[in-house]
Amino acid sequence: MGFFATKVLPEFIEVDLGHKSLQIRLKRNSRAKRYILRIPPGDPTPVITVPARGNLKTAQDFANRQVGWLKQRLGSRPDTIKFEEHARIPIRGVLHTLRSSGKLRGLAQLDMEEETEELLLLLPGETQSFHRKTKDFLRKLAKDDIEGHVRHFTKQLGRNYHSITLRDTKSRWGSCSHDGKLSFSWRLVMAPPDILEYVAAHEVAHLVKLDHSPEFWRICEELAPHTKQAQRWLKEHGSQLHLYGQE
């Protein structure tokens, strides 16, 4: 053991914004060299990254000095969009309006209003269940799209994968483990189809090279020639996908 013992931090601290108090989550990172405050996309709780030798007092002092920044950022932050009736959400990059199908049972389905040509996602049952049913529909659609691309790309490379899991991660769009387990954010199905295709290609390329070496990027761009454009889209627009479906 080393000479330095890291004290356990509380999960949250609070700062006074004047009209109310605000909770901030603390997250220790052994690789961080300084305290960093950020507001994760689609999450109302700010996060302070605390370096390995950081402590509670310094984290609290740092947070108190950032009150003005927090007021400005939280005040100008775009509103989240709930999965509720009449909400408009992107599906495969195109906005759809959530609408009741008027049926008590059945499956959610994509449709179009004939007169206005408005694209719809029709949902059965009570409106109170719209959040769950919309999320279930998007997850299934994402699974179908991702599995199709993964099968195509693994066949192209002559590789096998172990499994595919869908999650709601905020820090990454996909991952690949050393034993071939692939994981993806279901929110990718809200992006244009070529973005989901790129992320699938990226993770399948890791089945060959589990790093980000020049050889890895060669394989990735061979599978998805639009790799650079997709990366740029995710950097500029990816955080917006986390604004949808927050309860």
TrEMBL record:
It holds the Pfam family YgjP-like. Residues 33-237 form the YgjP-like metallopeptidase domain. InterPro entries: UTP_pyrophosphatase-like, YgjP-like_metallopeptidase. Gene3D superfamilies: Metalloproteases ('zincins'), catalytic domain (3.30.2010.10). PANTHER family: UNCHARACTERIZED PROTEIN YGJP (PTHR30399), UTP PYROPHOSPHATASE (PTHR30399:SF1). This is YgjP-like metallopeptidase domain-containing protein.
